[in-house]
Prior knowledge:
By secondary structure, this protein is an alpha+beta fold. The chain has helices at about 1-35, 60-65, 80-85, 85-100; strands at about 45-50, 65-75. The chain is built from 4 helices and 2 strands; from the N terminus they run αβαβαα.
Amino acid sequence: MRVLANCEATRAMGATCASGHLRGARMYYESSHNPDWCPVTNSGVPIAVANFAGDTAIRRWAEESNTVVRRTEFDRGGHFAALEAPHLLSDDIRQFFSSLR
């Protein structure tokens, strides 16, 4: 079971390690120079929000311009949930996508 958790963490962190930190930094740069850069129109695409312990709550921002269909609060994990609680994150992702079938 330990190997499975490590594989899940690796997969979940893959996109973030590749260039996710640059995308996050760009969002702050662009929005500070152009307030209209981030779209505020709701696309209608269903999304899920997972809040892990110790991380900043994003619910308010997520609900402003998205169709939030699932919210999960965790008492463990943190900002790097894929490393800190990979089984919680992967289970939540699976449950979200299985609900869309």
